Amino acid sequence: MKYLLPLASILALSVTAAFSESTFTGSGDNSSWSDPANWQSGTVPLQGDDVTIDAIPSDGIILLDTGFPVSGVITEIASLTFASTLSGSALTIAPIFDEILSVGNITNTSTVAVTLSTYVYSGSDSTWEGNLNFGFVNLGTTVVTISGDTTSIVIDETIQGTSQLAFNIGDTAADYGRFVKGGTSNTTLLTLNNTSISLMLTGLYAPGAGDTFTLAFGFGLSDYNLDNLFLPTLEEGLSWDTTQFAAGGLLTVVPEPSTYALIALTALGLVVFRRRSRSC
User: Fold this and answer.
1) What is the distance between the alpha carbons of residues 148 and 184, in angstroms, rounded to a whole number?
2) What gap in Å lies between CA 23 and CA 42, rounded to an integer?
3) Closest CA to 240 of 214, 202, 212, 215
4) Structural domain boundaries of the chain?
5) pLDDT category, 269, cuts 50, 70, 90?
6) Is the bond leading into 69 cis (omega within 30 degrees of zero)?
7) pLDDT category, 186, cuts 50, 70, 90?
8) For 85-103, what is each residue's pLDDT tens digit?
């Protein structure tokens, strides 16, 4: 399944105040998100609900099928929690037809290996905790804190054959999506397995010389490939410095080498001019 990064269709999303709690019990067809009988309340989660997964289907897969057969339909919830009472080895939330999950806090309090193979859009500043595996993530301009001393967040191309991680820059230099390490232990991990990383301009701001963007503050990144790093085009005379990307995804806007040379030549010309002026 091939995903395209949603742009205008998701940029306006925001997770609203929680309306109620919805708990997945699997008492209906055992796997479909869209089946009301699979939910304790007898209704499918509404926009803004806090969702808890308290059962694992027999095949280990919950189908996110709210939009089928329409591609790219957005399921918007406030939070997603995997209950500590879950038993089993693995659980996957999978799209049936390119559905998008917009969510705030994501917490896995169980020992089950959880994978979200659908496209996940961060709808608000939030906290992700526990062992979580993703295929496609867009943080937008939100700040996602990875909390908990044993948390492991993995964005892995093997889940769908490709993986994508997208960040947006909004209306100011400080308005951009990023991960922040909230745990105090070195066992809090962020792993990118050959993931395509995109930084996109979606607001009014145009980056200038000296601007820095730290996409994963507090983490040392590994298993990434700079050939898979896609950055926006800058104004003439500026370029991206990616030499420190391993240190927390640090990107810096710098003058291009030719611009440095022009500045140096201009400075040299001024010195020569002043010397000649003094000798006259």
Assistant:
1) 8
2) 10
3) 212
4) 8-253
5) low
6) yes
7) confident
8) 999 999 999 998 888 999 9
Q: Can you give the pLDDT at residue 258? A: 61
Q: Report residue 274 as tokens.
A: 């002043």
- Residue 277: predicted pLDDT: 56
Contact 120, 95 (CB under 8 A): no
Strand 196-201 to strand 238-241: parallel, antiparallel, or no bridges (unpaired)? Answer: unpaired
Distance CA 237, CA 243 (A): 18
Q: How is residue 10 written in tokens?
A: 């998701």
**SS3 for the chain, per residue?**
CCCCCCCHHHHCCCCCCCCCEEEECCCCCCCECCCHHHECCCCCCCCCCEEEECCCCCCCEEEECCCCCCCCCEEECCEEEECCCCCCCEEEEEECCCCEEEECEEEECCCCEEEEEEEEEECCCEEEEEEEEEEEEECCCCEEEEEEEEEEEEEECCCCCCCEEEEEECCCCCCECEEEECCCCCCCEEEEECCEEEEEECCCCCCCCCCEEECEECCECCCCCHHHEECCCCCCCEEEECCCCCECCEEEEEECHHHHHHHHHHHHHHHHHHHHHHHC
As a residue count, the chain comes to 280
What pLDDT score was predicted for residue 184?
Answer: 75
What dihedral do alpha carbons 72, 73, 79, 81 form, nearest 10°? -80
